[in-house]
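Give me a protein, keeping tokens residue-aligned:
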Amino acid sequence: MKYAVDLHLHSCLSPCGDMDMTPNNIVNMAYLKGLELIAVTDHNTAGQLPAVKAVADAVGIGLVPGMELTTREEAHMLAYFRTVEEALDFSKEIYPHLPPIKNKASLFGRQVYMNEDDEETGEEPIHLLSALDLSVNRLFEMVTGRGGLAIPAHINRGANGILQALGFLPPDIPFPALEVTTGLPLPHKGIPDVKQLHSSDAHYLENMFERQEFLELSSPTADAFFDYILKG
């Protein structure tokens, strides 16, 4: 069955995420837009996922736990996991690999943790947009070693797409899929024959997808998404 998805969203924990991107607002906007499976992928952290999962379960929206990693080369890579617990464990593992740079909320935006009632429970002091001291290859190994999916983000868009950050897709890394930004050119050479994902990368509620991107899944769940990607 085809399900409407948006698998790259940022909450208010990402410094670039609007403060209206709260757990309840994200999930309920997804419901209003007719989405059935979403992924919240904050920069270099999974800290907002427990609250998002609680709201998503209550509303009946499927959630793929994830985060958007910034590699040492400044390329963005999506990391998806089957459970929130797995994502949180990985988030703790990579946290020490962030440079100890304090976030300047006046410059970059606040980094706010919220509970399932959209109440602020804390603020992340370390700037989450910084690059980890881990390479593309190493992060791929770490994510897949934990049973996750490592997928380059918006490969054909901006300085943080892997094609511009590196100049090419590393041929020695067996990425299971690629996230491609629609409406922008994609080279005809050097792109492997793998599944391509299209997501909104929304930092504002109004930018979340409508019912425009569909995946053929057995159910709107993280496990079904993994099955879809890994079946080749």
In short: The CA atoms of residues 200 and 208 lie 6 Å apart. The chain has a mean pLDDT of 97. The first strand starts at residue 2 and ends at 9. The radius of gyration is 16 Å.
